[in-house]
Amino acid sequence: MTLFVPLSKLQLRMYRNYLRCGNVYGDDNIASNFNVMQPRKICQHPYLFPGIQDEGTDLVEDSGKLGVLDKLLKKLISEKHKILIFSQFVIMLD
């Protein structure tokens, strides 16, 4: 199964800042790493960036992927399914 999940509002703001300024904070004065990992991290979870968690309101809802996963897990667990989750970002499994 493949699901295409929209970004949360916080992720979308960070992604637009990255495209506009080259960093997730939206500040031209902050040094940023201009590699391909930054947009991937934004799409995983905004809290992977230092200081962003202070802006967030909900660990699950601030990540589009976690929001959908949370809903799927509740349904699958209630139906007694076995579940195996893979991730390229081990920190997302913590």
TrEMBL record:
Species annotation: Nymphaea colorata (pocket water lily)
Protein's recorded name: SNF2 N-terminal domain-containing protein
GO-annotated cellular components: chromatin; nucleus
Stored InterPro entries: P-loop_NTPase
Alphabetical UniProt keywords: Nucleus
Superkingdom of the organism of origin: Eukaryota
Example GO molecular function: ATP hydrolysis activity
